[in-house]
Specification:
Elements (H helix, E strand, L loop, with lengths): L25 H10 L4 H19 L6 E6 L5 H13 L19 H11 L3 E7 H4 L9 H13 L7 H13 L2 H12 L14 H11 L4 H9 L9 H13 L6 E7 L1 H5 L3 H18 L3 E7 L3 H8 L4 H6 L2 E5 L1 H11 L5 H21 L15 H7 L5 H15 L5 H4 L5 H11 L15 H5 L4 H11 L8 H12 L10 H7 L8 H17 L3 E4 L2 E4 L2 H11 L5 H16 L4 E3 L5 E3 L1 E4 L2 E3 L7 E5 L1 H4 L4 H9 L3 E5 L5 H18 L7 H30 L2 E4 L2 E3 L6 H16 L13 H9 L17 H16 L4 E2 H9 L7 H13 L3 E5 L2 E3 L5 H9 L1 H4 L2 E5 L5 H15 L8 H24 L9 H11 L8 H10 L1 H19 L2 H17 L1 H6 L3 H15 L10 H37 L7 H20 L3 H32 L16 E4 L1 H4 L8 H20 L3 E4 L2
Parallel strand pairs: 1-4, 1-5, 2-3, 3-4, 10-12, 12-13, 20-21
Antiparallel strand pairs: 6-7, 8-9, 10-11, 13-14, 14-15, 16-19, 17-18, 17-19
Helix pairs in contact: 2-4, 8-9, 9-10, 11-13, 17-18, 23-24, 24-26, 25-26, 28-31, 28-32, 31-32, 34-37, 34-38, 35-37, 40-43, 41-42, 42-44, 45-47, 45-48, 47-48, 48-49, 48-50, 49-50
Protein name: BREX system P-loop protein BrxC
Keywords: Coiled coil
C-alpha cells in the first residue's frame, strides 16, 4: 500500500493550511469551521472564555480583555479566527457557526454558553495589527490609531485618515452620506468608496459634493477642506466615547469585539506601545462596561510581557482577566486529526506490524545528547497514529519554525504565521504520497514548505549547492544541507552524525551504519565546499555571510609552535595543573613541563614530565621511546585517543587571530553577530580541547627508566601521578635513607636549641633512624675536604637535594645540626664559628635562608689533644680563678670565652672613667683589650686553645698590673689625683700672669705635681699631692687678693669719671642707667672671681666701656647743643663736647735721641706745638701707653 491511500481523508484536498485573518470566502470559512479540531485543551479554553463573555451579557463588567498566548504554530491565530466566527454567528452557506460545534463540544454546559453568546448580536473586527499598522504612526499612539482605523473600516469609513473618516461619519449621522457619494461620483467620474486616498487631489469635487450634501456653503466647505489636517485631535478618550456611541446606537445588548492577532510581536519591548494598549483597553472597559471586548494573541503570556517591560502595567492585568495559553499538544492533536487520521483497516494493519517493527524502529530512531521528548514511537497505537511521520518531528518542527523566525532567517510571512504547521505536514505527506508502506518521512521533507519565505542568505546557499557541480552526483548532499539548516538554531539537537542520521531516515528498514558512512562522505564534501563547518562532533550550516567569514578564517596560517604552546597551557595549567609532585607527606618534587620538546614554564627541576602529542609522536615506535626514557630523567607520556584536539586548537587560534585583525565596528550588524557567535564557538572548542586532552592522557602510553609503564588511574591526574611516582622512586633511589623528618622551621629551631648531647654513643638505627643518611653527608664532607674544596651549606643542599638523593633542605639541616652537636664538623658564618649553644639565630639564618646558606662554610673538625686540654684548664684556673669548665671542647671554649668577655666588659667599664680625664693606667687597659680581643668565635677550638697557651705569660702579667688600676679606683687615690689635676688646670689658666710675675712657691708646687701626674705608674707618689696642693693654693690666693684691690680702684675711677660726664644736659636717662649698670656689674665680678687673668680682664673691659660711653655722651651733648643753638643758655656748666682722641707720644713726634738738656727742650717744643694744634681743632687728647 502506498502512503496516500492510508489516510481517511484525501491528502491532496484543499484544507487551507494558511490561516488568514481577513479571509472571508464562504467556502473557505465553511471548511475551516467544519474541519476545526476541538482538542481537550481547547474545550477548557472555550469554557473559560465563554463563562466570562456570557457574564457580560447579563451584567456590566470592565474585565473585557482576553489574552491568548502560545508559541508559533500552537494554533492561537486559528483559535482567534474561529472565535470571531462564533461570536458574530453569521450563517455560512446556510449554517450558523455555533451549529458546527454541537458535535465538537462534548460538554453541554460549554455548548450552552456558546449558544447564549451567539444569541446576542455582536460585530467582530478581526485583524492582524502589524498588517493594519501604518509606518507613519508614532509609537506613542500607534495602537490607538490601528484600533481607530479598523473601527472606521468596519463602519464603512476610510480608516487611513481620521479627518476623512470624521467627515464621512458626520455625513452619515446627518443621513447625507449617500447623497455625498452620488454627487462625488457624478463630479469625479469615480466611486468615492475605494478612492478616498485621492482626497487631496480631488479638492474641488469634494468641496462641491460636501456643500451639496450638507447645510454647508461652498465657502464653508472650502474653508473646512483647507484646514482639515489641523483638526487631528484623536485621543483615547474620544475614541472610547465614539465606540460607546456606536454600541449604544445598536440593540440593547449589542456587543462589539476587537480580535487582534500578534499583538505581542507588534509591541515587542516598546513600553510606549504597552502603555498605549493598557490605556485603550482600560478606557474601552470603563466606558462600555462589557459591551466592547478586546481579544489579542501573543507568543508570550501577559505576565511574561509585563515582567519583561519592567514598568508598572498592573492595571492591564485587571482588564485581561481571561488568559488562555495554547500548548504544543493542541497543535499536534489538530495535525493528527486533520492530516494523519487513517482508515480503520490501515490503523489495524499498522498496529499489527509494530511488535515486529518496534524494536527496529527504536534502534533506528535514537538521539544523542538530546532531551527525552525527542523520541520515536512509544507503542503500536502511536505508530499507527503518527506514521509515516515520527513523534519527534511534531515538537522539533514547531521549534524550527520558531527559531527560524527569531533568528531573522525567514521572511515576514512566516513570522506572521501565514505558513502553518498544518501546511507543512500536508505538503510533506503529499510529497511522499506515492511511496510504499515502510517509508519514513525525513526532516528535510518539511524544507519546501518554509523555503518560499526564507531569507535570501539561506536560499542562496541551498540553491548554490543545488547548482554546484561538485555536489551534483547525489541529491543526498542537498538534503543533508537542508537538515543542517533546519537544526542550526535548535540547541536541543546537536548536529552530530548520530542525530543527523536519525533525522534523515527514509525507511523503517534502513541500515543506519551504511547511512552514517554515506553521511560522513557527504559531510566531508560539504565541508570542502565551505557550506558547513565542524565544531567538535557537530556539523553546522553556514549562511552566505558565515561562509565568507569562515573562508577568511581558514585562510589564516597558524604556526605549529603556536598550537603546541596553546596546548601546553591547557595540559599543564588545567588537565594537570600541579607544579610539584607529592611523592609523600614529606617529599614534594618539582618537575619540568615539556610538550613536543617545547618547554613550558621554569626549567629548574631534575626530572621532566615530557608529553608527546600527535604532532611529534605519530610515527615513533615504543622501543625508541623506551630508549629515550633510559637516557634521561623523563616521564615520557605519548598521548593516545582522538587527536582532534590539534585541529580544535588550530581553529581556536585562527578565529581569535581573525577577531584581532578585524575592526568589529566596521562590520555589518549581521557579521558582528556572527563574530559574537564565533566567540561562543571558541569557548566551546576550548572546552573540547581540554576534554580531549584529558581523554588523551587517560589513553596515553607512559615510559620511564627504559620501561613502558603500566599506570593505573581513572583520571589524567591519577595516571600522571602514578607515572611520576615510578620515576621518582627509580631516580631518587637514596631518598628512603631519610626516615626521620624535620617538618617545619619551628621543628628545626627546637632541634638546635635542645640540650641533646653528643650522639656518637647512641648511633644505631633504632635510636637514630637517619644514621645512614648522616653517614652519607659526613663522608661527602670528608671527601671534599681531602680535595681542598670549600663546602657551603648551600653546596650540601644542592648535592643532597639532587639525584639520587632528593632530600629536603630541612632534613639535611637537621642532620648537619646533629653533626655539629657530635663535634664532627664546624660551621663558619661571616668569619664566626657557630655553635648550637649560642648561635641559634645565626644557625637558623644559614639553614633557612637561601642567600645566607651560601655564606655558611662547613669544615671537617679536628680533635683537640688531651694534653692541650689540660694546659688550658690550668691557665683558666690561674687567669680566671675557675675550675668549673664544661668537659667537651665546645663547652670549654665557650666557658673560657664567657670569662674573657666578662674581663673585656670590666675593661670597658674602667675606660669610661677616663673620659676627659688623664688618669693613669689607660694604656694598660688598651693593652688588655688588645690581648683579649684575639680570643673570639672566629677561631676554631684548636687554634683558640693553642693561642691561649702561647699568650699565657702576657695575660698573667697583665692581670697583675691590672690590680694597680683596681686599687686606684677602689681607694682615695683617684680623688687626690683629681686635686692635682685641678691645680695644674688653675695654673694653666693663669699662666700668662706667672710668666711675667714669677713666684717660687707656685713654680715648685706645679713642677712637683706635673711629675706625679705624668708618671704612667704614679700610684706610690699620689700621697704627696696634698702638700703641693695646699702650698699652691695659699700663695695663689694672696696674689689674687692684691690684684683684686688694684683692679677695683681703677674700675672705680672709670666709674666716677663717667658719672661726672653723664651729669651734662642733653644726656639721656637710658645712657645714665646703662653706665650705672655696667660698672656695678664690673665691681661685683671683681669680688666673685678666683682667677687672676679674669681680674686683669675686667680692668680692660672697664676702660673699653669708658671710651664707648664717652663717645655716646659726646654725641648726645652735641645733638642737644645743636637743637638749642641761638636759644638762651640754660646750662651753668658745659663740658666741651669735643671728641676725645687717644694717641701715643710716638704718633705726635718722631722718636729722638736725647743726649743733653737742649735735646729735651727741642723734643718738648715739638710735642707742645702738636698738642696745641690739635686743641685748636676742638679735640680732647688722651695720652696712652
Amino acid at each position: 500500500m502506498i502512503i496516500k491511500d492510508m489516510f481517511l481523508k484525501d491528502i491532496n484536498r484543499d484544507i487551507r493550511g494558511v490561516v488568514k485573518v481577513q479571509q472571508r470566502d464562504e467556502e473557505i470559512v465553511y471548511q475551516e469551521l467544519d474541519e476545526y479540531v476541538v482538542t481537550k485543551e481547547l474545550i477548557k479554553h472555550f469554557s473559560r472564555f465563554y463563562e466570562n463573555y456570557a457574564r457580560s451579557v447579563d451584567q456590566p463588567t470592565d474585565k473585557m480583555g482576553v489574552w491568548i498566548s502560545g508559541f508559533f504554530g500552537s494554533g492561537k491565530s486559528h483559535f482567534l479566527k474561529i472565535l470571531s466566527y462564533l461570536l458574530n454567528n453569521q450563517p455560512v452557506l446556510g449554517k450558523k457557526p455555533v451549529d458546527f460545534f454541537e458535535e465538537k463540544i462534548n460538554d453541554p454546559m460549554v455548548y450552552a454558553l456558546m449558544e447564549k453568546a451567539a444569541s446576542v448580536e455582536a460585530d467582530t473586527i478581526l485583524f492582524n495589527i502589524d498588517a493594519k499598522s501604518n509606518t507613519s504612526y508614532t509609537s506613542r499612539d500607534a495602537i490607538l490609531r490601528v484600533f481607530k482605523k479598523v473601527f472606521d473600516e468596519h463602519r464603512g469609513y476610510y480608516g487611513d485618515n481620521t479627518a476623512i473618516s470624521r467627515m464621512e461619519k458626520f455625513l452619515d449621522d446627518e443621513g447625507n452620506f449617500e447623497a455625498f457619494k452620488e454627487k462625488y461620483e457624478g463630479l469625479a467620474n469615480e466611486s468615492w468608496v475605494g478612492n478616498q486616498s485621492n482626497f487631496y487631489f480631488r479638492g474641488e469635487e469634494i468641496i462641491q459634493s460636501l456643500a451639496h450634501a450638507s447645510n454647508m456653503s461652498v465657502d464653508g466647505a472650502r474653508n473646512w477642506y483647507e484646514r482639515v489636517d489641523q483638526a487631528d485631535d484623536l485621543t483615547i478618550e474620544s475614541f472610547a466615547q465614539e465606540v460607546k456611541e456606536f454600541v449604544d446606537s445598536k440593540d440593547n445588548n449589542f456587543h462589539l469585539v476587537f480580535l487582534v492577532d500578534e499583538i505581542g510581536q507588534y509591541i515587542g519591548d516598546n513600553r510606549s506601545l504597552m502603555l498605549n494598549l493598557q490605556t485603550v483597553v482600560e478606557s474601552l472597559g470603563a466606558t462600555s462596561l462589557g459591551k466592547v471586548w478586546v481579544l489579542v494573541t501573543s507568543q508570550e503570556s501577559i505576565d511574561d510581557v509585563i515582567k519583561v517591560k519592567g514598568d508598572d502595567f498592573s492595571r492591564i492585568q485587571g482588564r485581561f482577566d481571561t488568559r488562555l495559553s495554547l500548548s504544543s499538544t493542541s497543535a499536534d492533536e489538530v495535525i493528527k486529526k486533520r492530516i494523519l487520521d487513517k482508515k480503520p483497516a490501515v490503523t489495524e494493519r499498522l498496529q499489527a506490524v509494530y511488535p515486529e517493527q518496534g524494536p527496529i524502529l527504536n534502534n533506528l530512531i535514537s538521539f544523542r545528547d538530546t532531551p527525552g521528548n525527542y523520541r520515536g514511537y512509544n507503542d503500536g497505537v502511536e505508530f499507527a497514529q503518527d506514521y509515516p511521520f515520527v513523534p519527534y518531528q511534531f515538537k522539533l518542527l514547531q521549534n524550527i519554525f520558531e527559531q527560524v523566525r527569531k533568528h531573522g532567517s525567514s521572511g515576514k510571512h512566516l513570522s506572521e504565521g501565514e505558513r502553518s504547521l498544518l501546511s507543512a505536514y500536508q505538503e510533506a505527506a503529499q510529497q511522499y504520497g506515492n511511496e510504499q508502506e515502510g517509508a519514513l518521512i525525513p526532516l528535510y521533507a518539511f524544507y519546501n514548505t518554509m523555503s518560499e519565505f526564507l531569507n535570501p542568505t539561506i536560499t542562496r546557499v541551498i540553491n548554490s549547492a543545488a547548482n554546484n557541480p561538485n555536489l551534483a552526483d547525489d541529491e543526498f548532499h542537498l538534503n543533508l544541507l537542508k537538515v543542517l539548516f533546519m537544526i542550526k538554531y535548535i540547541e536541543e539537537i546537536p548536529g552530530n552524525i548520530d542525530n543527523i542520521a536519525t533525522l534523515m531516515l527514509t525507511n523503517v528498514n534502513e541500515d543506519k551504519t551504511v547511512l552514517k558512512q554515506k553521511l560522513t562522505e557527504s559531510l566531508n564534501k560539504l565541508r570542502q565546499e565551505r557550506l558547513i563547518q565542524k565544531n567538535g562532533e557537530n556539523f553546522i550550516f553556514l549562511t552566505d555571510e558565515e561562509q565568507d567569514i569562515n573562508r577568511e578564517i581558514q585562510s589564516i596560517s597558524i604556526d605549529e609552535m603556536e598550537i603546541i604552546q596553546s596546548l601546553s597551557e591547557y595540559l599543564f595549567e588545567d588537565v594537570f595543573p600541579e607544579k610539584k609532585f607529592r611523592f609523600s607527606n614529606h617529599y614534594h618534587f618539582d618537575f619540568n613541563e615539556i610538550l613536543d620538546t617545547v618547554k613550558h614554564g621554569r626549567q629548574t627541576a631534575s626530572i621532566n614530565l615530557s608529553v608527546l602529542s600527535a604532532i611529534s609522536s605519530s610515527d615513533v615506535e615504543d622501543q625508541e621511546l623506551q630508549m629515550d626514557s633510559m637516557n634521561s630523567r623523563d616521564l615520557i607520556v605519548r598521548l593516545g585517543g582522538d587527536a582532534s584536539y590539534i585541529e580544535e586548537m588550530e581553529e581556536v587560534l585562527k578565529i581569535e587571530k581573525y577577531r584581532m585583525r578585524r575592526n568589529v565596528n566596521d562590520l555589518s550588524e549581521t557579521k558582528q553577530n556572527i563574530l559574537n557567535n564565533k566567540q561562543a564557538e571558541v569557548r566551546e572548542r576550548r572546552r573540547r580541547v581540554r576534554d580531549l586532552l584529558e581523554k588523551a592522557v587517560k589513553e596515553a602510553d607512559f615510559y620511564a627508566n627504559g620501561q613502558k609503564l603500566t599506570t593505573n588511574g581513572s583520571t589524567a591526574r591519577e595516571r600522571i601521578n602514578n607515572g611520576l611516582s615510578y620515576l621518582v622512586e627509580n631516580t631518587y633511589y637514596k631518598l628512603s635513607l631519610v626516615k626521620d623528618h624535620i617538618n617545619s622551621e619551628r621543628d628545626l629551631k627546637l632541634k638546635i636549641t635542645s640540650n641533646e648531647g653528643a650522639l656518637s654513643l647512641e648511633m644505631d638505627d633504632s635510636t637514630y633512624p637517619n644514621r645512614a643518611a648522616m653517614n652519607e653527608i659526613e663522608q661527602y664532607i670528608e671527601l671534599q675536604t681531602q680535595m681542598s674544596k670549600q663546602i657551603t651549606v648551600k653546596f650540601i643542599y644542592d648535592h643532597f637535594g639532587a639525584v639520587p638523593f632528593g632530600w629536603k633542605s630541612l632534613d639535611i639541616s637537621g642532620m648537619l645540626v646533629d653533626l655539629l652537636k657530635d663535634e664532627k664538623i664546624r660551621l663558619r658564618y661571616n668569619t664566626v664559628y657557630l655553635n648550637t649553644q649560642e648561635s641559634h639565630k645565626e644557625l637558623m639564618d644559614v639553614f633557612t635562608n637561601n642567600i645566607e646558606s651560601a655564606k655558611g662554610i662547613i669544615l671537617k673538625r679536628e680533635k683537640v689533644d688531651s694534653a692541650l686540654i689540660s694546659k688550658v684548664r690550668r691557665i683558666a684556673r690561674s687567669l680566671f680563678d675557675t675550675v668549673s669548665l664544661p668537659q667537651d671542647e665546645d663547652g670549654m671554649m665557650l666557658g673560657i670565652q664567657d670569662l674573657i668577655n666578662d674581663k673585656i666588659s670590666k675593661i670597658n667599664d674602667y675606660k669610661q672613667m677616663y673620659t676627659n680625664k688623664k688618669y693613669p693606667g689607660f694604656s694598660l687597659l688598651e693593652k688588655g683589650t688588645q690581648l683579649f680581643d684575639q680570643f673570639n668565635n672566629r677561631l676554631d677550638n684548636l687554634t683558640y686553645f693553642n693561642k691561649l697557651v702561647e699568650m699565657e705569660e702576657q695575660l698573667i702579667q697583665w692581670e697583675e698590673d691590672f690590680e694597680y688600676i683596681k686599687g686606684f679606683y677602689g681607694s682615695n687615690q683617684k680623688n687626690l689625683f683629681d686635686d692635682g689635676l685641678e691645680i695644674l688646670n688653675r695654673y694653666e689658666e693663669n699662666q700668662s700672669f706667672f710668666e711675667n710675675e714669677a713666684n717660687e712657691t707656685i713654680d715648685n708646687s706645679v713642677r712637683e705635681l706635673e711629675k706625679i701626674i705624668k708618671n704612667p705608674i704614679p700610684y706610690s707618689e699620689i700621697r704627696k699631692i696634698p702638700e703641693f696642693r695646699d702650698n699652691f693654693n695659699e700663695t695663689f690666693d694672696d696674689i689674687l687678693e692684691e690684684r683684686q684691690n688694684k683692679a677695683k680702684e681703677r674700675i672705680q675711677d672709670d666709674y666716677n669719671r663717667m658719672k661726672q660726664y653723664s651729669k651734662q644736659e642733653g644726656i639721656s636717662d637710658q645712657t645714665v642707667e646703662k653706665i650705672n649698670s655696667t660698672w656695678t656689674n664690673y665691681l661685683s665680678q671683681i669680688e666673685g672671681t678666683s682667677d687672676i687673668h679674669r681680674v686683669d680682664a675686667l680692668t680692660v673691659y672697664s676702660n673699653d666701656a669708658k671710651e664707648k660711653y664717652e663717645r655716646t655722651i659726646q654725641r648726645e651733648v652735641y645733638a642737644h647743643y645743636q637743637n638749642n643753638n641761638g636759644n638762651e643758655d640754660t646750662s651753668s656748666t658745659v663740658v666741651d663736647p669735643k671728641p676725645v682722641q687717644k694717641v701715643r707720644i710716638t704718633s705726635l713726634v718722631k722718636p729722638a735721641r736725647i743726649e743733653n738738656e737742649q735735646d729735651i727742650a727741642n723734643y718738648l717744643n715739638k710735642l707742645s706745638r702738636e698738642l696745641k694744634q690739635r686743641i685748636q681743632m676742638h679735640q680732647i687728647i688722651e695720652i696712652i701707653d
